[in-house]
Design goal:
Layout lengths: L1 E2 L5 H6 L3 E2 L5 H10 L4 E3 L6 H6 L1 H22 L2 E3 L2 E2 L23 H20 L3 E6 L1 E3 L12 H11 L2 E4 L7 E5 H13 L9 E3 L3 E3 L1 H9 L6 E4 L3 H6 L9 H7 L7 H16 L8 H7 L1
Parallel strand pairs: 1-2, 3-4, 4-6, 5-6, 6-10, 7-9, 8-12
Antiparallel strand pairs: 9-11
Helix pairs in contact: 2-4, 4-5, 6-8, 6-11
Length: about 300
């Protein structure tokens, strides 16, 4: 793993960690050569809502960083994975369902950069035979990290606030439907996709998803385990972004070509998130062992 940020002990204990700046091509070259890299998995990006607030920086990170990753893969013969997103689609795209191949025309700089990535990667594949691979992800639910500025991040923050405050104010509308997936499904999809031999992939970019839900539907799932939970709404600029994105993601091409199947539906995602976060906000009370208590007495 690599980043420009100082890692936590949990990250460094999980495996090797090195400094890498996606905008420094020579730094990336040194890493590839020194560590004899064969696969490059390039996740670095400014997410949708944050990117809209800093377009210049997002163009550097999301476009120039991608150019560096593609050039590295081309120069050193790497298998390259770069994720795309539901943000690669726009209001002219069919929303329910959104097929793998359709008009895109996104209206955010994040989405524009992702379409650029898809087309550039596929160009290098067809022109030079580069092993480029891309999965379009929906919103991804994970308890491991805090929300990072994406439009779908309400579906993470809602669990934190439900357990900590018993209340959440959502910046989308109650019936704003978006596709989502659990982080376990997300990571498994990348692993399964990357391990496939190149000749088994008839295309290079695929939709993958878990389930689609609205804030209201997710709130009902939380109520099953947090009975006093309250949910209200105060839509902001992110609602406009969300309403230009797919409501239901069609991942039938991935299911057909490499047998992709999600394991988490809406209920499963909610249960997993609450289970993972509950020890943080509602730790079990410490109890004295009966033998210790009697000895002290």
């Amino acid at each position: 793993m690599s980043d420009i940020r100082k890692p936590t002990e949990e990250i460094t204990s999980a495996g090797p960690y090195i400094f890498a700046d996606v905008l420094d091509y020579q730094c990336l070259q040194k890493i590839v050569v020194t560590h004899r890299i064969d696969w490059l998995i390039h996740f670095s990006a400014l997410l949708s809502a944050v990117a809209e607030q800093n377009v210049a920086l997002s163009m550097k990170v999301n476009i120039q960083g991608t150019h560096n990753a593609i050039e590295l893969a081309h120069q050193y013969g790497l298998r390259l994975f770069i994720p795309s997103t539901i943000a690669a689609f726009g209001p002219e795209s069919p929303r329910n369902p959104t097929p793998n191949l359709t008009i895109q025309r996104p209206k955010t700089i994040y989405g524009v950069a992702k379409v650029h990535t898809e087309l550039l990667g596929e160009y290098f594949h067809h022109k030079f035979g580069m092993d480029f691979r891309c999965l379009r992800f929906p919103g991804v639910l994970s308890s491991d990290t805090n929300p990072g500025g994406g439009t779908t991040d309400y579906a993470i923050q809602i669990f934190h606030d439900a357990l900590k405050h018993g209340h959440y104010t959502c910046y989308l509308g109650p019936h704003t439907r978006l596709p989502m997936m659990h982080i376990d499904d997300c990571l498994r999809s990348v692993a399964e996709f990357m391990e496939l031999p190149p000749d088994l992939l008839p295309q290079r970019t695929y939709n993958v998803t878990g389930d689609s839900f609205t804030p209201h539907e997710l709130g009902l799932e939380i109520l099953k385990e947090v009975p006093d939970f309250k949910l209200d709404y105060r839509p902001d600029h992110r609602l406009i972004i969300a309403e230009s994105w797919p409501e239901v993601f069609d991942d039938s091409c991935a299911q057909r070509d490499w047998n992709w199947r999600p394991q988490y539906d809406t209920s499963g995602m909610a249960t997993a998130m609450l289970s993972d976060l509950r020890p943080i906000y509602q730790p079990e009370p410490e109890t004295n062992h009966p033998l210790v208590a009697s000895a002290v007495a």
